[in-house]
């Protein structure tokens, strides 16, 4: 596959290059090879993208929702038809195994385009009768929406932000992570092939500073970021200065509680999905696994057996189930956390080492006997490192599960239905799971509380974050004035 894009940016319906921008080498994480080179957006490119978006938006908003939706649904069909090629590109961009990308990336992006394409024609205001007078509301777009993406799900993030924004009548300027710049360009191509008018979905490359320029620009009405909490704090503050709308999808250190009556096999499956999918580079991962003392050793034994079945290697081989970290930098961060875990006294159950070779591979790693104050218990690692804690009492484990600045996700495994719902109600988290982990269907709201975020993606809830309501008061009779 030719992984070199036609040009770095996609603006106003066409590829655009400006080699004056800093060079960004795209590295295939499985081999360390440079597979493409793009250039960061210069101020001229940023201007071109924002002007294109501003210019195109009004006519798009003036179309009916059904017309807008038809284009999104057509894009979903094209995306599904090209799933193989898009999945291969996603694997090159991120290193995630094809076994995952072929079912979780372009497919998830297509779901978002189809779902919001379907909703576009159903967006309405309301009628509020006030005696003979009335108020009606209009659901209006925000204008120009900026999306800034993390590197773990480049296609999905580009669609999760683009689809609801476009459905509501906005224009989009998307900046992918500099680590994974390739996939969003394909999303732009497909949208335009499906009939999206030029200027409505633009992709520009660059590091954080390009993102920062977009966030502070007066032409921008909304910023949606997927990234870490420290970046979120900066972007939220910068957006606040311009009184812009925001969606913040940030990091987590989510708890998963396994009670003594849980089905151990399912709990182990949940813990695997919640720690090792995408080599642990998933924001909602349940990385603090609290296992009841009575079943802890059985849980750890079964987990170790199952982890021995992970197929680590060439991500393009459909048999491979565990790929490399996205970059040397991320691998080094994870290795440092593993050393800290050992130094602070956690028990290494399995894994813990880099796998020698050209790629950025690391073993799936499990620590047990982790205590709440340890660094690996408190900080987001964003790699395949699971921390297992003991507990005996429900009230105690709830307090410990919630004792974190994060609040993205949380899970519980138990056969006791009343306990499952009680625990879910008490979790301080935006996305909770009972006897499962890390499902993210487009129909359900996704997002965090506390430091993990503001707003929700997916579902009807996302419409609230990409549109605003105007009230129009209509008087039927005379207007009374005091003088
Ligand atoms: P970062 O926070 O480092 O970066 C996110 C994006 O923001 C990148 O495109 C980055 O550019 C850009 N950026 C950095 N600084 C600024 C700035 N000052 N102004 C505007 N944009 C800026 O996150 P990572 O890419 O390392 O992704 C990992 C993080 O993302 C984890 O914390 C993870 O939990 C979180 N995440 C959250 C998800 C959610 O839905 N809640 C889903 C996926 C990931 P660049 O990196 O190119 O310099």
Plain-language structure description:
By secondary structure, the protein is α/β, with parallel strands linked by helices. The chain has 16 helices and 20 strands. The strands form five sheets. A seven-stranded mixed beta sheet has the order 14-15-16-13-12-17-18, with helices on both faces. Strands 9-8-7-10-11-19 form a six-stranded mixed beta sheet, sandwiched between helices. It has a three-stranded antiparallel beta sheet with strand order 5-6-20. Helix 13 links the parallel strand 15 and strand 16 (385-391). The radius of gyration is 23 Å and the shape is globular. The protein starts with 8 loop residues before the first strand and ends in a 9-residue tail after the last strand. The model has no long low-confidence stretch (mean pLDDT 98).
């Amino acid at each position: 596959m030719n992984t070199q894009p036609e040009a770095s940016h996609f603006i106003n319906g066409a590829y655009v290059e400006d080699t004056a921008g800093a060079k960004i080498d795209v590295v295939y994480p499985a081999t360390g090879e440079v597979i493409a080179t793009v250039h960061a957006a210069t101020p001229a490119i940023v201007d071109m993208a924002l002007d294109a978006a501003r210019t195109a938006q009004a006519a798009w908003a003036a179309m009916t929702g059904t017309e807008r939706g038809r284009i999104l649904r057509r894009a979903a069909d094209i995306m599904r038809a090209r799933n193989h090629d898009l999945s291969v590109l996603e694997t090159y961009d991120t290193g995630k195994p094809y076994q995952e990308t072929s079912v979780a990336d372009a497919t998830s992006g297509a779901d978002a385009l189809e779902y919001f394409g379907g909703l576009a024609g159903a967006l309405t205001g309301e009628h509020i009768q006030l005696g003979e007078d009335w108020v009606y509301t209009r659901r209006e777009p925000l204008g120009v929406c900026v999306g800034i993406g993390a590197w773990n799900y480049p296609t999905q993030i580009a669609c999760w932000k683009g689809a609801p924004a476009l459905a509501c009548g906005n224009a989009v300027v998307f900046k992918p992570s500099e680590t994974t710049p390739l996939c969003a360009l394909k999303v732009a191509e497909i949208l335009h092939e499906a009939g999206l008018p030029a200027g409505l979905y633009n992709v520009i490359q660059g590091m954080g500073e390009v993102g920062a320029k977009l966030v502070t620009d007066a032409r921008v009405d909304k910023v949606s970021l997927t990234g870490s909490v420290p970046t979120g704090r900066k972007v939220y503050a910068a957006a606040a200065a311009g009184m812009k709308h925001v969606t913040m999808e940030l990091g987590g250190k989510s708890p998963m509680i396994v009670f003594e009556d849980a089905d151990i096999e399912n709990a182990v499956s949940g813990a695997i999905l919640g720690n090792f999918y995408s080599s642990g580079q998933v924001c909602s991962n349940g990385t603090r696994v609290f296992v009841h003392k009575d079943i802890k050793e059985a849980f750890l034994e079964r987990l170790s057996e199952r982890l021995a079945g992970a197929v680590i290697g060439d991500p393009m081989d459909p048999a491979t189930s565990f790929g490399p970290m996205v970059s040397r930098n991320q691998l080094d961060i994870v290795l440092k956390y593993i050393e800290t875990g050992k130094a602070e006294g956690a028990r290494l159950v399995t894994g813990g080492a880099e796998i020698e070779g050209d790629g950025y591979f690391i073993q799936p790693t499990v620590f047990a006997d982790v205590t709440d104050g340890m660094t690996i218990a408190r900080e987001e690692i964003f790699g395949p490192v699971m921390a297992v804690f003991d507990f005996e009492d429900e009230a105690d484990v709830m307090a410990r599960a919630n004792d974190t600045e994060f609040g993205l996700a949380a899970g519980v495994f138990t056969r006791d239905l009343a306990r499952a719902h009680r625990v879910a109600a008490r979790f301080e988290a935006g996305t909770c799971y009972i006897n499962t982990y890390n499902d993210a269907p487009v129909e359900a709201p996704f997002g965090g509380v506390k430091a993990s975020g503001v707003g929700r993606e997916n579902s009807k809830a996302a419409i609230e974050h990409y549109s605003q309501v105007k009230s129009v008061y209509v008087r039927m009779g005379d207007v009374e004035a005091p003088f």
